[in-house]
Amino acid sequence: MQRTTIGPSNRIVVVGGGLSGLTAALYLRGAGREVTVLEAAETPGGRVATETVGINRFDTGATILTMPELVHAPMSAVGINADEAARRLDLIDVDPTYHMRYADGTTLNLHRDIDDLAAAIADTFGNDASDGYRNLTDWLARLYDAEFDRFINRNFDSAISIARDRKTRTAAAQLVRLGALGKLSSTVGRHITDERLLRAFTFQALYAGVPPERARAVYAVIAHMDISMGVYYPRGGMGRVAEEMVAALTGAGGRCELGTAADRVEWDGNRVQAIGTSDGRRWPCDAVVFTTDTPVTRRLLGDKPTGRSRKIVYSPSAVVAHGVVPRSVTAGWPGGHHTLDFGAAWSQTFRELTARGGRGRLMSDPSLLINRPGLSDPDHSITAAGESVTVLAPCPNLDSAPLPWRELSRPYVHEVLAVLEARGYHGIRDTFEIAKVDDPGTWAAKGMAAGTPFSAAHTVRQTGPLRTPNLVPGTDNVVLAGSSTVPGVGIPPVLVSGRLAAARITGD
Ligand SMILES: Cc1cc2nc3c(=O)[nH]c(=O)nc-3n(C[C@H](O)[C@H](O)[C@H](O)COP(=O)(O)OP(=O)(O)OC[C@H]3O[C@@H](n4cnc5c(N)ncnc54)[C@H](O)[C@@H]3O)c2cc1C
User: Fold this and answer.
1) How far away, in angstroms, is 46 Cα from ligand 1 center?
2) Is 40 near ligand 1, meaning CB less than 6 Å away?
3) pLDDT tens-digit series, residues 309-331
4) CATH class of 11-90+235-311+456-506
Protein backbone atom coordinates (compact mmCIF):
# COMPACT_ATOMS: atom_id res chain seq x y z
CA MET A 1 0.00 0.00 0.00
CA GLN A 2 1.39 3.39 -0.96
CA ARG A 3 1.39 6.34 1.42
CA THR A 4 -1.38 8.87 0.87
CA THR A 5 -2.48 12.25 2.12
CA ILE A 6 -4.12 12.26 5.54
CA GLY A 7 -7.72 13.19 6.34
CA PRO A 8 -10.66 14.13 4.14
CA SER A 9 -10.12 14.40 0.41
CA ASN A 10 -13.40 15.38 -1.14
CA ARG A 11 -12.58 18.86 -2.49
CA ILE A 12 -9.32 19.07 -4.42
CA VAL A 13 -7.62 22.13 -5.86
CA VAL A 14 -5.05 21.51 -8.59
CA VAL A 15 -2.66 24.43 -9.13
CA GLY A 16 -1.65 24.53 -12.80
CA GLY A 17 -3.53 23.37 -15.88
CA GLY A 18 -0.60 21.85 -17.77
CA LEU A 19 -0.74 18.19 -18.75
CA SER A 20 0.26 16.93 -15.29
CA GLY A 21 -2.42 18.99 -13.55
CA LEU A 22 -5.14 18.05 -16.03
CA THR A 23 -4.23 14.37 -15.72
CA ALA A 24 -4.39 14.51 -11.92
CA ALA A 25 -7.71 16.38 -12.15
CA LEU A 26 -9.25 13.82 -14.51
CA TYR A 27 -8.26 10.84 -12.35
CA LEU A 28 -9.48 12.60 -9.21
CA ARG A 29 -12.77 13.55 -10.83
CA GLY A 30 -13.10 9.97 -12.09
CA ALA A 31 -12.70 8.86 -8.46
CA GLY A 32 -15.63 11.07 -7.48
CA ARG A 33 -13.76 14.08 -6.06
CA GLU A 34 -14.87 17.71 -6.52
CA VAL A 35 -12.00 19.09 -8.56
CA THR A 36 -11.02 22.65 -9.47
CA VAL A 37 -7.97 23.40 -11.62
CA LEU A 38 -6.54 26.90 -11.16
CA GLU A 39 -4.51 27.96 -14.20
CA ALA A 40 -2.68 31.29 -14.30
CA ALA A 41 -2.66 31.58 -18.11
CA GLU A 42 -5.68 32.34 -20.28
CA THR A 43 -5.28 28.98 -22.04
CA PRO A 44 -4.58 25.53 -20.61
CA GLY A 45 -1.64 23.28 -21.49
CA GLY A 46 1.34 25.14 -20.01
CA ARG A 47 4.39 23.82 -21.86
CA VAL A 48 2.22 21.98 -24.39
CA ALA A 49 0.49 24.83 -26.17
CA THR A 50 -0.35 26.24 -29.58
CA GLU A 51 -0.38 30.02 -29.91
CA THR A 52 -1.58 32.19 -32.76
CA VAL A 53 0.72 35.09 -33.70
CA GLY A 54 -0.51 37.18 -36.61
CA ILE A 55 -2.44 34.64 -38.66
CA ASN A 56 -0.08 31.71 -38.05
CA ARG A 57 -0.23 29.03 -35.38
CA PHE A 58 2.89 27.83 -33.52
CA ASP A 59 3.52 25.02 -31.07
CA THR A 60 5.29 27.04 -28.40
CA GLY A 61 6.16 24.15 -26.09
CA ALA A 62 6.47 20.46 -26.83
CA THR A 63 6.25 19.38 -30.46
CA ILE A 64 6.80 15.63 -30.17
CA LEU A 65 3.87 13.68 -28.75
CA THR A 66 4.59 10.09 -27.82
CA MET A 67 2.51 7.48 -25.95
CA PRO A 68 -0.90 9.09 -26.55
CA GLU A 69 -2.48 6.21 -24.61
CA LEU A 70 -1.32 8.09 -21.51
CA VAL A 71 -3.69 10.91 -22.57
CA HIS A 72 -6.51 8.48 -23.36
CA ALA A 73 -6.26 6.85 -19.92
CA PRO A 74 -7.20 9.89 -17.77
CA MET A 75 -9.99 10.69 -20.24
CA SER A 76 -11.23 7.10 -19.76
CA ALA A 77 -11.26 7.77 -16.01
CA VAL A 78 -14.20 10.15 -16.61
CA GLY A 79 -15.99 7.76 -18.95
CA ILE A 80 -14.56 8.62 -22.37
CA ASN A 81 -13.37 5.34 -23.84
CA ALA A 82 -10.06 5.08 -25.67
CA ASP A 83 -11.67 5.08 -29.14
CA GLU A 84 -13.65 8.21 -28.37
CA ALA A 85 -10.57 9.88 -26.84
CA ALA A 86 -8.58 9.02 -29.98
CA ARG A 87 -11.38 10.42 -32.16
CA ARG A 88 -11.43 13.67 -30.18
CA LEU A 89 -7.64 14.10 -30.27
CA ASP A 90 -7.61 13.34 -34.01
CA LEU A 91 -3.96 12.31 -34.05
CA ILE A 92 -1.90 12.24 -37.22
CA ASP A 93 0.75 9.51 -37.41
CA VAL A 94 4.09 11.23 -37.96
CA ASP A 95 6.30 8.87 -39.93
CA PRO A 96 9.27 9.25 -40.24
CA THR A 97 9.35 10.38 -36.64
CA TYR A 98 12.59 12.30 -37.28
CA HIS A 99 14.69 13.22 -40.26
CA MET A 100 18.37 13.16 -39.33
CA ARG A 101 20.82 15.34 -41.27
CA TYR A 102 24.53 14.97 -40.56
CA ALA A 103 27.38 17.38 -41.17
CA ASP A 104 28.93 15.07 -43.81
CA GLY A 105 25.78 15.22 -45.95
CA THR A 106 24.39 11.82 -44.83
CA THR A 107 20.67 11.72 -44.10
CA LEU A 108 18.52 9.11 -42.36
CA ASN A 109 14.77 8.91 -41.90
CA LEU A 110 13.84 7.30 -38.59
CA HIS A 111 10.81 5.14 -39.31
CA ARG A 112 8.69 3.59 -36.60
CA ASP A 113 8.36 0.29 -38.42
CA ILE A 114 11.36 -1.88 -37.60
CA ASP A 115 11.67 -3.32 -41.14
CA ASP A 116 11.40 0.12 -42.76
CA LEU A 117 14.05 1.57 -40.46
CA ALA A 118 16.30 -1.48 -40.86
CA ALA A 119 16.07 -1.02 -44.66
CA ALA A 120 16.85 2.72 -44.40
CA ILE A 121 19.85 1.96 -42.16
CA ALA A 122 21.08 -0.76 -44.55
CA ASP A 123 20.86 1.72 -47.47
CA THR A 124 22.88 4.37 -45.67
CA PHE A 125 25.17 2.51 -43.27
CA GLY A 126 25.29 -1.06 -44.61
CA ASN A 127 23.92 -4.46 -43.56
CA ASP A 128 26.00 -4.85 -40.39
CA ALA A 129 24.62 -1.57 -39.06
CA SER A 130 21.11 -2.71 -39.94
CA ASP A 131 21.58 -6.01 -38.04
CA GLY A 132 23.00 -4.06 -35.11
CA TYR A 133 19.90 -1.88 -35.13
CA ARG A 134 17.63 -4.95 -35.01
CA ASN A 135 19.51 -6.22 -31.94
CA LEU A 136 19.37 -2.79 -30.39
CA THR A 137 15.64 -2.41 -30.89
CA ASP A 138 15.04 -5.79 -29.27
CA TRP A 139 17.20 -4.73 -26.30
CA LEU A 140 15.32 -1.41 -26.06
CA ALA A 141 11.95 -3.19 -25.94
CA ARG A 142 13.18 -5.47 -23.12
CA LEU A 143 14.57 -2.48 -21.24
CA TYR A 144 11.24 -0.68 -21.55
CA ASP A 145 9.28 -3.75 -20.35
CA ALA A 146 11.49 -4.12 -17.29
CA GLU A 147 11.42 -0.41 -16.50
CA PHE A 148 8.12 1.25 -17.27
CA ASP A 149 5.56 -0.34 -14.95
CA ARG A 150 7.92 -1.21 -12.10
CA PHE A 151 10.03 1.97 -11.95
CA ILE A 152 8.36 4.80 -13.86
CA ASN A 153 4.61 4.28 -13.64
CA ARG A 154 4.26 3.84 -9.86
CA ASN A 155 4.68 5.58 -6.54
CA PHE A 156 7.58 4.70 -4.27
CA ASP A 157 7.61 5.55 -0.60
CA SER A 158 11.32 4.94 -0.10
CA ALA A 159 14.30 3.07 -1.48
CA ILE A 160 13.60 0.44 1.20
CA SER A 161 10.09 -0.12 -0.12
CA ILE A 162 11.65 -0.89 -3.52
CA ALA A 163 13.98 -3.44 -1.99
CA ARG A 164 11.09 -5.13 -0.15
CA ASP A 165 8.90 -5.64 -3.22
CA ARG A 166 9.60 -8.99 -4.91
CA LYS A 167 8.42 -8.04 -8.43
CA THR A 168 10.44 -4.84 -8.27
CA ARG A 169 13.54 -6.76 -7.16
CA THR A 170 13.05 -9.12 -10.11
CA ALA A 171 12.69 -6.17 -12.52
CA ALA A 172 15.77 -4.51 -10.99
CA ALA A 173 17.79 -7.70 -11.51
CA GLN A 174 16.55 -7.81 -15.11
CA LEU A 175 17.67 -4.19 -15.63
CA VAL A 176 21.11 -5.00 -14.25
CA ARG A 177 21.35 -8.02 -16.59
CA LEU A 178 20.36 -5.78 -19.50
CA GLY A 179 23.20 -3.40 -18.64
CA ALA A 180 20.86 -0.51 -17.76
CA LEU A 181 23.29 0.87 -15.21
CA GLY A 182 26.14 1.11 -17.72
CA LYS A 183 26.84 4.28 -19.67
CA LEU A 184 24.36 5.14 -22.43
CA SER A 185 26.85 5.66 -25.28
CA SER A 186 28.91 2.57 -24.61
CA THR A 187 25.89 0.32 -23.99
CA VAL A 188 24.08 1.39 -27.16
CA GLY A 189 27.48 1.26 -28.85
CA ARG A 190 27.61 -2.52 -28.27
CA HIS A 191 24.91 -2.82 -30.93
CA ILE A 192 25.74 0.00 -33.32
CA THR A 193 29.15 1.46 -33.87
CA ASP A 194 28.69 4.14 -36.52
CA GLU A 195 28.94 7.42 -34.63
CA ARG A 196 26.17 8.99 -36.72
CA LEU A 197 23.75 6.16 -36.08
CA LEU A 198 24.67 6.21 -32.41
CA ARG A 199 23.44 9.79 -32.27
CA ALA A 200 19.97 8.73 -33.41
CA PHE A 201 19.58 6.56 -30.30
CA THR A 202 21.43 8.68 -27.73
CA PHE A 203 20.64 12.33 -28.51
CA GLN A 204 17.58 11.91 -26.25
CA ALA A 205 20.02 12.10 -23.30
CA LEU A 206 19.79 15.84 -23.83
CA TYR A 207 16.14 15.62 -22.73
CA ALA A 208 17.47 14.05 -19.55
CA GLY A 209 20.00 16.87 -19.21
CA VAL A 210 23.05 14.62 -19.16
CA PRO A 211 25.67 13.91 -21.90
CA PRO A 212 25.23 10.42 -23.47
CA GLU A 213 28.66 9.30 -22.33
CA ARG A 214 27.73 10.13 -18.72
CA ALA A 215 23.99 9.25 -18.78
CA ARG A 216 22.95 5.79 -17.61
CA ALA A 217 21.83 3.31 -20.27
CA VAL A 218 18.45 3.18 -18.55
CA TYR A 219 17.61 6.42 -20.45
CA ALA A 220 17.72 4.57 -23.73
CA VAL A 221 14.00 3.96 -23.07
CA ILE A 222 13.37 7.51 -24.30
CA ALA A 223 14.65 6.45 -27.73
CA HIS A 224 12.30 3.46 -27.60
CA MET A 225 9.31 5.70 -26.74
CA ASP A 226 10.28 8.17 -29.47
CA ILE A 227 11.32 5.96 -32.32
CA SER A 228 9.77 2.52 -31.87
CA MET A 229 6.50 3.56 -30.20
CA GLY A 230 5.89 6.39 -32.62
CA VAL A 231 5.28 10.13 -32.74
CA TYR A 232 1.85 11.69 -33.22
CA TYR A 233 0.51 15.14 -33.95
CA PRO A 234 -2.97 16.36 -32.96
CA ARG A 235 -4.68 17.93 -35.94
CA GLY A 236 -4.83 21.67 -35.18
CA GLY A 237 -1.71 21.74 -32.99
CA MET A 238 -0.23 20.38 -29.78
CA GLY A 239 -2.43 22.71 -27.74
CA ARG A 240 -5.43 20.56 -28.63
CA VAL A 241 -4.29 17.88 -26.17
CA ALA A 242 -5.00 20.16 -23.20
CA GLU A 243 -8.18 21.54 -24.80
CA GLU A 244 -9.60 18.02 -25.09
CA MET A 245 -8.53 17.16 -21.55
CA VAL A 246 -10.26 20.30 -20.23
CA ALA A 247 -13.40 19.46 -22.23
CA ALA A 248 -13.38 15.96 -20.71
CA LEU A 249 -12.92 17.38 -17.21
CA THR A 250 -15.63 20.03 -17.42
CA GLY A 251 -17.93 17.58 -19.23
CA ALA A 252 -17.62 15.33 -16.18
CA GLY A 253 -18.43 18.13 -13.73
CA GLY A 254 -14.88 19.29 -12.88
CA ARG A 255 -13.84 22.94 -13.12
CA CYS A 256 -10.95 24.64 -14.85
CA GLU A 257 -10.51 28.31 -13.94
CA LEU A 258 -8.29 30.01 -16.51
CA GLY A 259 -6.54 33.33 -15.86
CA THR A 260 -6.55 32.45 -12.14
CA ALA A 261 -3.10 32.47 -10.49
CA ALA A 262 -2.60 30.94 -7.05
CA ASP A 263 -0.73 33.43 -4.90
CA ARG A 264 -1.18 32.27 -1.31
CA VAL A 265 -1.77 29.20 0.76
CA GLU A 266 -3.92 29.19 3.90
CA TRP A 267 -2.69 26.71 6.49
CA ASP A 268 -4.35 25.06 9.44
CA GLY A 269 -1.37 23.40 11.10
CA ASN A 270 0.04 20.96 8.55
CA ARG A 271 -3.07 21.11 6.38
CA VAL A 272 -3.73 23.47 3.51
CA GLN A 273 -7.29 24.64 3.97
CA ALA A 274 -7.59 27.02 1.04
CA ILE A 275 -5.71 28.48 -1.91
CA GLY A 276 -5.93 32.20 -2.55
CA THR A 277 -5.73 33.61 -6.06
CA SER A 278 -4.50 36.95 -7.34
CA ASP A 279 -8.07 38.06 -8.14
CA GLY A 280 -8.79 37.98 -4.38
CA ARG A 281 -10.82 34.77 -4.45
CA ARG A 282 -10.39 31.92 -1.97
CA TRP A 283 -10.65 28.23 -2.92
CA PRO A 284 -11.29 26.00 0.12
CA CYS A 285 -9.92 22.47 -0.26
CA ASP A 286 -9.32 19.19 1.52
CA ALA A 287 -6.14 18.52 -0.47
CA VAL A 288 -4.05 20.37 -3.06
CA VAL A 289 -1.89 19.28 -5.99
CA PHE A 290 0.85 21.74 -7.03
CA THR A 291 2.17 21.30 -10.57
CA THR A 292 4.14 24.54 -10.62
CA ASP A 293 7.92 24.64 -11.07
CA THR A 294 10.04 24.37 -7.92
CA PRO A 295 10.59 28.14 -7.30
CA VAL A 296 6.84 28.89 -7.52
CA THR A 297 5.90 25.88 -5.37
CA ARG A 298 8.54 26.80 -2.79
CA ARG A 299 7.26 30.38 -2.65
CA LEU A 300 3.65 29.22 -2.22
CA LEU A 301 4.53 26.62 0.43
CA GLY A 302 6.56 29.13 2.45
CA ASP A 303 8.62 27.39 5.11
CA LYS A 304 7.45 23.83 4.29
CA PRO A 305 10.30 21.91 2.65
CA THR A 306 9.54 20.51 -0.82
CA GLY A 307 11.34 17.22 -0.35
CA ARG A 308 15.04 17.40 -1.19
CA SER A 309 16.88 20.28 0.40
CA ARG A 310 20.15 19.84 -1.52
CA LYS A 311 20.86 22.05 -4.54
CA ILE A 312 19.07 20.87 -7.67
CA VAL A 313 21.03 20.46 -10.90
CA TYR A 314 18.91 21.71 -13.79
CA SER A 315 18.74 20.55 -17.40
CA PRO A 316 20.09 22.68 -20.24
CA SER A 317 17.67 25.25 -21.65
CA ALA A 318 16.76 26.24 -25.21
CA VAL A 319 16.29 29.23 -27.46
CA VAL A 320 13.13 28.65 -29.48
CA ALA A 321 12.43 30.88 -32.49
CA HIS A 322 9.02 30.77 -34.16
CA GLY A 323 8.70 32.38 -37.56
CA VAL A 324 6.82 32.45 -40.84
CA VAL A 325 8.56 31.61 -44.12
CA PRO A 326 7.01 31.87 -47.61
CA ARG A 327 6.00 28.52 -49.08
CA SER A 328 8.02 29.30 -52.18
CA VAL A 329 11.11 29.25 -49.91
CA THR A 330 10.30 26.23 -47.69
CA ALA A 331 9.30 24.14 -50.74
CA GLY A 332 13.00 23.65 -51.55
CA TRP A 333 14.12 22.70 -48.02
CA PRO A 334 15.43 19.35 -46.88
CA GLY A 335 13.96 17.40 -43.93
CA GLY A 336 10.42 16.84 -42.70
CA HIS A 337 8.07 17.63 -39.82
CA HIS A 338 10.79 17.07 -37.18
CA THR A 339 14.33 17.46 -38.47
CA LEU A 340 17.47 17.08 -36.39
CA ASP A 341 20.23 18.96 -38.10
CA PHE A 342 23.51 17.92 -36.48
CA GLY A 343 26.78 19.82 -36.42
CA ALA A 344 29.96 17.78 -36.75
CA ALA A 345 30.72 18.30 -33.05
CA TRP A 346 28.98 16.02 -30.55
CA SER A 347 30.69 15.37 -27.17
CA GLN A 348 31.89 18.95 -27.22
CA THR A 349 28.30 20.15 -27.80
CA PHE A 350 27.10 18.32 -24.69
CA ARG A 351 30.06 19.66 -22.70
CA GLU A 352 29.18 23.21 -23.76
CA LEU A 353 25.53 22.77 -22.84
CA THR A 354 25.91 20.99 -19.52
CA ALA A 355 29.08 22.49 -17.95
CA ARG A 356 28.36 23.59 -14.40
CA GLY A 357 29.34 26.64 -12.35
CA GLY A 358 29.12 29.34 -15.03
CA ARG A 359 31.34 27.44 -17.50
CA GLY A 360 28.54 26.65 -19.99
CA ARG A 361 28.73 28.02 -23.53
CA LEU A 362 26.55 28.42 -26.57
CA MET A 363 27.06 25.52 -29.01
CA SER A 364 30.10 26.28 -31.14
CA ASP A 365 28.87 23.90 -33.87
CA PRO A 366 25.11 23.74 -33.26
CA SER A 367 22.83 20.75 -33.48
CA LEU A 368 19.31 22.07 -34.09
CA LEU A 369 15.72 20.84 -34.14
CA ILE A 370 13.55 22.26 -36.93
CA ASN A 371 9.78 21.78 -36.65
CA ARG A 372 7.46 22.16 -39.61
CA PRO A 373 3.99 20.96 -38.52
CA GLY A 374 2.58 22.14 -41.85
CA LEU A 375 4.09 19.03 -43.45
CA SER A 376 1.68 16.87 -41.39
CA ASP A 377 -1.17 19.33 -40.93
CA PRO A 378 -1.11 21.94 -43.71
CA ASP A 379 -4.60 23.28 -42.98
CA HIS A 380 -3.48 24.66 -39.62
CA SER A 381 0.16 25.62 -40.10
CA ILE A 382 0.31 27.08 -43.60
CA THR A 383 -1.48 30.37 -44.21
CA ALA A 384 -1.48 33.10 -46.83
CA ALA A 385 1.48 34.59 -44.95
CA GLY A 386 3.52 31.39 -45.27
CA GLU A 387 4.51 28.28 -43.32
CA SER A 388 4.97 28.18 -39.52
CA VAL A 389 8.55 27.12 -38.77
CA THR A 390 10.08 26.62 -35.33
CA VAL A 391 13.79 26.30 -34.67
CA LEU A 392 14.96 24.98 -31.29
CA ALA A 393 18.59 25.56 -30.33
CA PRO A 394 19.60 23.91 -27.03
CA CYS A 395 21.60 26.28 -24.82
CA PRO A 396 23.07 26.26 -21.29
CA ASN A 397 20.71 27.16 -18.45
CA LEU A 398 21.30 30.30 -16.38
CA ASP A 399 23.19 28.40 -13.62
CA SER A 400 25.51 27.00 -16.26
CA ALA A 401 25.98 30.28 -18.19
CA PRO A 402 24.35 33.48 -16.88
CA LEU A 403 24.23 35.13 -20.33
CA PRO A 404 22.55 38.52 -21.00
CA TRP A 405 19.64 37.07 -22.97
CA ARG A 406 17.77 40.37 -23.33
CA GLU A 407 20.52 41.65 -25.67
CA LEU A 408 21.72 38.28 -26.92
CA SER A 409 18.48 36.60 -27.95
CA ARG A 410 17.78 38.14 -31.38
CA PRO A 411 21.43 38.24 -32.57
CA TYR A 412 21.75 34.57 -31.56
CA VAL A 413 18.62 33.66 -33.53
CA HIS A 414 20.11 35.39 -36.58
CA GLU A 415 23.34 33.42 -36.10
CA VAL A 416 21.38 30.16 -35.96
CA LEU A 417 19.43 31.10 -39.10
CA ALA A 418 22.75 31.78 -40.88
CA VAL A 419 23.95 28.29 -39.87
CA LEU A 420 20.78 26.77 -41.31
CA GLU A 421 21.13 28.80 -44.51
CA ALA A 422 24.61 27.32 -44.96
CA ARG A 423 23.23 23.82 -44.30
CA GLY A 424 20.77 23.97 -47.18
CA TYR A 425 17.70 25.80 -45.84
CA HIS A 426 18.05 28.33 -48.61
CA GLY A 427 16.29 31.64 -48.05
CA ILE A 428 15.73 31.10 -44.29
CA ARG A 429 18.12 33.86 -43.27
CA ASP A 430 16.39 36.57 -45.29
CA THR A 431 12.75 35.48 -45.13
CA PHE A 432 12.23 34.04 -41.61
CA GLU A 433 9.82 36.57 -40.17
CA ILE A 434 10.16 36.21 -36.42
CA ALA A 435 6.84 35.83 -34.59
CA LYS A 436 8.14 34.94 -31.13
CA VAL A 437 11.39 33.98 -29.43
CA ASP A 438 11.69 32.22 -26.07
CA ASP A 439 15.06 32.05 -24.33
CA PRO A 440 16.35 31.30 -20.81
CA GLY A 441 15.36 34.83 -19.78
CA THR A 442 11.74 34.32 -20.80
CA TRP A 443 11.56 30.86 -19.17
CA ALA A 444 13.00 32.36 -15.95
CA ALA A 445 10.41 35.16 -16.05
CA LYS A 446 7.71 32.45 -16.07
CA GLY A 447 9.08 31.07 -12.78
CA MET A 448 11.19 28.26 -14.19
CA ALA A 449 14.31 27.59 -12.15
CA ALA A 450 17.67 28.32 -13.83
CA GLY A 451 15.77 29.61 -16.88
CA THR A 452 15.12 26.14 -18.22
CA PRO A 453 11.73 24.69 -19.18
CA PHE A 454 13.20 21.17 -18.78
CA SER A 455 13.34 21.17 -14.94
CA ALA A 456 15.68 19.11 -12.81
CA ALA A 457 18.14 17.05 -14.84
CA HIS A 458 17.91 13.26 -14.64
CA THR A 459 21.22 12.79 -12.92
CA VAL A 460 21.47 9.61 -10.84
CA ARG A 461 20.88 11.66 -7.67
CA GLN A 462 17.72 13.21 -9.14
CA THR A 463 16.05 10.11 -10.54
CA GLY A 464 13.51 7.60 -9.24
CA PRO A 465 13.26 7.55 -5.46
CA LEU A 466 16.01 10.21 -5.29
CA ARG A 467 13.99 12.79 -7.29
CA THR A 468 11.88 15.38 -5.41
CA PRO A 469 9.06 13.17 -4.08
CA ASN A 470 5.39 13.86 -4.75
CA LEU A 471 4.31 13.83 -1.09
CA VAL A 472 5.53 16.96 0.71
CA PRO A 473 7.10 16.11 4.09
CA GLY A 474 5.63 17.90 7.08
CA THR A 475 2.26 18.40 5.39
CA ASP A 476 -0.88 16.26 5.56
CA ASN A 477 -2.60 17.09 2.31
CA VAL A 478 -0.11 18.49 -0.23
CA VAL A 479 0.94 16.56 -3.33
CA LEU A 480 3.26 17.54 -6.19
CA ALA A 481 2.95 16.67 -9.87
CA GLY A 482 4.73 17.80 -13.03
CA SER A 483 8.24 17.76 -14.36
CA SER A 484 9.92 18.93 -11.12
CA THR A 485 8.87 15.76 -9.33
CA VAL A 486 8.67 12.03 -10.13
CA PRO A 487 9.05 10.46 -12.60
CA GLY A 488 10.46 13.30 -14.71
CA VAL A 489 10.46 15.65 -17.67
CA GLY A 490 8.54 15.36 -20.96
CA ILE A 491 4.95 14.61 -21.90
CA PRO A 492 4.82 10.89 -21.00
CA PRO A 493 6.48 11.38 -17.59
CA VAL A 494 4.28 14.34 -16.61
CA LEU A 495 1.15 12.44 -17.64
CA VAL A 496 2.36 9.63 -15.39
CA SER A 497 3.12 12.16 -12.62
CA GLY A 498 -0.50 13.37 -12.72
CA ARG A 499 -1.76 9.83 -12.25
CA LEU A 500 0.70 9.19 -9.42
CA ALA A 501 -0.33 12.44 -7.69
CA ALA A 502 -4.02 11.48 -7.89
CA ALA A 503 -3.17 8.05 -6.43
CA ARG A 504 -1.47 9.78 -3.47
CA ILE A 505 -4.90 11.21 -2.64
CA THR A 506 -7.25 8.38 -3.59
CA GLY A 507 -4.98 5.50 -2.54
CA ASP A 508 -4.55 2.28 -4.51
C1 LIG B 1 10.20 24.39 -25.98
C2 LIG B 1 9.84 23.08 -25.35
C3 LIG B 1 9.91 21.93 -26.10
C4 LIG B 1 9.57 20.70 -25.53
N5 LIG B 1 9.56 19.61 -26.33
C6 LIG B 1 9.03 18.46 -25.85
C7 LIG B 1 8.71 17.43 -26.75
O8 LIG B 1 8.84 17.58 -27.96
N9 LIG B 1 8.19 16.27 -26.23
C10 LIG B 1 7.99 16.11 -24.89
O11 LIG B 1 7.54 15.03 -24.48
N12 LIG B 1 8.24 17.12 -24.02
C13 LIG B 1 8.72 18.29 -24.47
N14 LIG B 1 8.90 19.35 -23.65
C15 LIG B 1 8.71 19.16 -22.18
C16 LIG B 1 7.23 19.12 -21.80
O17 LIG B 1 6.54 20.08 -22.53
C18 LIG B 1 7.09 19.42 -20.30
O19 LIG B 1 7.94 18.54 -19.55
C20 LIG B 1 5.68 19.24 -19.79
O21 LIG B 1 4.72 19.76 -20.67
C22 LIG B 1 5.55 19.93 -18.43
O23 LIG B 1 4.23 19.74 -17.95
P24 LIG B 1 3.85 20.19 -16.47
O25 LIG B 1 2.42 19.90 -16.29
O26 LIG B 1 4.83 19.63 -15.53
O27 LIG B 1 4.14 21.76 -16.44
P28 LIG B 1 3.42 23.00 -17.25
O29 LIG B 1 3.00 22.50 -18.55
O30 LIG B 1 4.37 24.10 -17.17
O31 LIG B 1 2.15 23.23 -16.34
C32 LIG B 1 2.20 24.04 -15.19
C33 LIG B 1 1.09 25.07 -15.32
O34 LIG B 1 1.05 25.84 -14.12
C35 LIG B 1 0.66 27.14 -14.47
N36 LIG B 1 1.03 28.03 -13.34
C37 LIG B 1 2.25 28.51 -13.03
N38 LIG B 1 2.16 29.26 -11.91
C39 LIG B 1 0.88 29.22 -11.52
C40 LIG B 1 0.15 29.79 -10.43
N41 LIG B 1 0.75 30.57 -9.50
N42 LIG B 1 -1.18 29.55 -10.34
C43 LIG B 1 -1.83 28.78 -11.26
N44 LIG B 1 -1.18 28.24 -12.32
C45 LIG B 1 0.15 28.43 -12.43
C46 LIG B 1 1.42 27.42 -15.74
O47 LIG B 1 0.83 28.48 -16.47
C48 LIG B 1 1.29 26.06 -16.44
O49 LIG B 1 0.17 26.03 -17.29
C50 LIG B 1 9.20 20.61 -24.17
C51 LIG B 1 9.12 21.78 -23.41
C52 LIG B 1 9.42 23.01 -24.00
C53 LIG B 1 9.25 24.25 -23.20
Assistant:
1) 4
2) yes
3) 678 999 999 999 999 999 999 99
4) alpha beta
